[in-house]
Amino acid sequence: MADNHPLIQPDRGQEAISIHLVNREGFPEWIKQLSAGQRAALEAQKFDGSGYQVGIVPAKDNAEDGWFAVGGVANPQDLSSWCMAKLAESLPEGIYRRADGEPGPALHGWQTAQYVFDRYKKPERPVGPRVLLTKNVKAIGGAVAEARAVCLVRDLVNTPAEDLGPAALEEQCEKLAKQHSASLTVTRGDALEQEYPMVHAVGRAAARHHAPRIMHLTWGKEGDPVLAIVGKGVCFDSGGLDVKSSSGMLLMKKDMGGAAHAIALAGLVMDAGLPVRLHLLVPAVENAISSNSFRPGDVLRSRKGLTVEIGNTDAEGRLILGDALQRASEEKPDFIIDFATLTGAARVALGPEFPALMTRQDSTAAALIAAGKAHDDEPWRLPLPDAYREWLNSDIADIQNAHGNSFAGASVAGLFLDRFVGEGIDWAHFDTFAWRPVARPGRPKGGDAYGLRAAWHMLRDRFGGG
């Protein structure tokens, strides 16, 4: 998004370029209202109303009299978040108005389509903001907040590990706390080793400027329902002593994508003034290789008191989440939700587009899936089968962090986390990719948010406010 530029603004009748939305089925009838010159202009652009097509049409046969835009969509009467995103990517700088109705959910994609990650490389041909007008003034604040939350996730995930280590995640939490007058506690060093021993063990091999820590932000009234949000903050994952291949390591700057989602979601909760007592927990580490790395075969003590045998040092995310989920459970929350780039198995099962969702309660899964479908951010539920719990048994410890077969990797990781969530607590776990390998309208290649909007709308519906 442009730097805090209001890409959607109230429609007060100001001068704007019209956008007409058509689909392929309705296009032959729609063009009958156009002049011969206008039809020829669209024909020259090979515009036929197919999805995501963009056409530029002179307002009259003489282009000096101005122009309007045409966008191809699946259904002009039932818009999605992304149906106007290609227009936002392709049109020149200016102010636009949908000609025959409101943009509705397309307000989201209009903004996210203009996202550019330019921290290290400036665009060769920068384009000014494309502003979309809406008469639904009440929708603007929420739509802007959601788009900025998505773009925050993108910024954090896209930033390389040298510039976004545990200290930088701490800075993000400090910024969030200051913005919302929240309280922030950061635990590191000897205190971390005592209070969050698995977080310390995973991160202890990193260089001093990437030392491990856990951030705990609290906000809201004491008497309100307790909501805990937890995010995996592995700022870079070498795999530890069970080292990844070079190709497997290449995208591991994104292994803090869960933390990015958690921070962005907490921001939405506080922006909207949701009536909850919020606890945001972000364990932040680098899983590095050094003489003091934790080892396969080690047995770690956890905050909960369970001992954990290490079967694979590359299954480290569940370790730091275990300590964080235990701390969240100590608040006796009404609901815990966590985000993590946890397993390759989830990607094998679902690909990059659908975040894997695991919950203890069917009603919670149904609410998250319904919210996701309604806002073009659908998760896919995977089970937490009791039959697989025995795969985490250890001969010498209470539990092991990696099972010895290749089956059901995402669900077994979820079962590991389940051991650290307090008994009877409603809990949802998102195993998200946090990366878009191929660009789509409104969704450029690179870091991206999956499940964030589903979670936000479910929380807003559940707790009210905003």
From TrEMBL:
Origin: domain of life: Bacteria
One example GO MF annotation: manganese ion binding
GO cellular component terms, A-Z: cytoplasm
Gene3D superfamilies membership: Leucine Aminopeptidase, subunit E, domain 1, Zn peptidases
Classification via InterPro entries: Leucine_aapep/pepB, Macro_dom-like, Peptidase_M17_C, Peptidase_M17_N_1
GO BP annotations, alphabetical order: proteolysis
Entry keyword annotation includes Protease: yes
Domain Cytosol aminopeptidase, residue spans: 312-319
Matching Pfam families: Peptidase_M17, Peptidase_M17_N_1
Family matches, as CDD domains: Peptidase_M17
Mitochondrion found in the keyword field: no
Keywords: Aminopeptidase, Hydrolase, Manganese, Protease
Protein family membership: Belongs to the peptidase M17 family.
Protein name: Leucyl aminopeptidase family protein
Native species: Erythrobacter aureus
